[in-house]
Design goal:
Helix content is 23%, strand content 23%. By secondary structure, the chain is α+β, with helices and mostly antiparallel strands. The protein has two domains: 258 residues, Galactose-binding domain-like (Jelly Rolls, Sandwich), CATH 2.60.120; 120 residues, 60s Ribosomal Protein L30, Chain: A (2-Layer Sandwich), CATH 3.30.1330. The strands form three sheets. Strands 2, 3, 5, 6, 9 and 11 form a six-stranded mixed beta sheet that branches. Helix 8 links the parallel strand 13 and strand 14.
């Protein structure tokens, strides 16, 4: 066993990190496993189905978190809220007291994710995730289980946490303390996604993590009125089916775990697009005659992706431009290919294609005279504008 551990440590430098610094594998739940058995816009009925559907994610024991694939179903619009970005998110129950169901313990759902590389002991990390509190989904969920005439009371709840693990596992002692925790109830509007974040210092070389509520419902704050009276009423009823049902249901999307000293997305992009409705990238440059993105371009493009995720109704056009050196038709094609490279990168970051357009302008829209190498450099640019 000792030899195996040392061998793993020797391999650690070979782990790769995402270009944006995010250590979470499949952070937006977009990547599916081959022959995933789940159905779009439907609740997942068993944990095995979840484990076989979404890459790099599993549930805990027999829990049934939902992999939300937002598509229209046979009856019209999907009843789940739209994901924060892309087509998919995960939905979990974080509050459903045992008093209401007659179970031995409270019913919570947990999901387990994987990291690209182990955390460094003593290093500080930032945890970010987007959440949406969905009362409508919670209500729909329990009506399917208990019937439409039952007294079901959706609520916001606290104690949403992230527990880091050395490896994925199927056993918790029950006294775990998540390294990242939001104790207060998280309240969002109907279609509102809220970013929650915080930092912690790694005390082990963690390779996995869980998301959910790790505390009892007795010790979880909610926005319910008169919870003590509800407990008292439920305990007087012998048949659990007749009891008041309380539930908190949260959608989770776009989880990020990055070193705390990682630079934040470029704030200039957000400011420019909100005020001037346009932004010219400063570091999105290309080798002569090529359109492959270079590493210096990625932080700016991640900044644009972050802006679009924060503003889900905004659509942008990516425009490619060249100087006047070379054939007009060649320059037009080159500028279009470069704009398309940016377009494809943004899609890879979870931005829906229908929110993006790209166009090559060639040399038709110079912003400086093509009289020197410096001015021609200004004209070889990629810009984005709100449409």
């Amino acid at each position: 066993m000792k030899n195996t551990v040392h061998f793993i440590f020797l391999l650690l430098p070979l782990f790769t990190v995402a270009q944006d610094g995010n250590l979470v594998l499949n952070p937006g739940f977009e990547k599916l496993l081959p022959n995933a058995p789940f159905k779009p816009c439907s609740y997942i009925q068993n944990g095995e189905s979840f484990d076989k559907s979404v890459a790099n994610w599993t549930t805990y024991r027999t829990m049934t978190p939902d992999l939300i694939d937002w598509q229209s179903d046979a009856y019209g619009e999907c009843f789940f809220p739209k994901p924060h970005s892309g087509d998919r998110a995960v939905g979990i129950i974080t509050y459903h007291p045992r008093f209401d169901t007659g179970r031995y313990d409270d019913f919570h759902e947990l999901v387990q994710g994987e990291l690209r590389a182990p955390l460094t002991v003593g290093k500080k990390y930032r945890v970010e995730l987007y959440v949406n509190q969905s009362d409508a989904t919670a209500l729909n969920h329990l009506m399917m289980l208990y019937g439409e005439k039952r007294d079901i009371r959706p609520t916001a709840a606290g104690n949403l946490g992230v527990l880091f693990l050395y490896n994925k596992n199927d056993y918790l002692k029950g006294n775990e303390q998540p390294q990242f925790l939001v104790t207060e109830p998280i309240v969002t509007g109907k279609d509102e996604w809220k970013l929650i974040s915080g930092t912690f210092t790694a005390d082990r070389a963690y390779l996995a993590f869980m998301v959910g509520n790790f505390f009892t419902d007795e010790n979880t704050l909610t926005t319910l009125e008169n919870p003590v009276e509800i407990d008292s009423s439920n305990l007087k009823l012998d048949r659990p089916i007749e009891r008041i049902k309380r539930i908190a249901y949260y959608l989770i999307d776009d989880i990020r775990i990055v070193p705390a000293d990682a630079p934040p997305p470029n704030p200039d992009i957000s400011t420019a697009l909100k005020t001037k409705k346009t932004y010219t990238f400063q570091n999105v440059n290309f080798k002569t005659g090529q359109w492959d993105l270079l590493p210096p371009a990625l932080p700016e493009l991640d900044g644009l992706a972050a802006f679009l995720k924060e503003n889900p109704k905004v659509k942008v056009e990516i425009g490619g431009h060249t100087d006047d050196v070379g054939n007009d038709d060649d320059n037009q094609l080159l500028s279009q290919n470069r704009a398309e490279s940016v377009y494809n990168y943004l899609i890879s970051k979870g931005i829906a294609p229908e929110r993006l357009k790209y166009k090559g302008y060639g040399e038709s829209q110079p912003i400086a005279p093509n009289t020197s190498s410096a001015s021609r450099l200004q004209n070889r640019r990629v810009a984005c504008k709100v449409i």
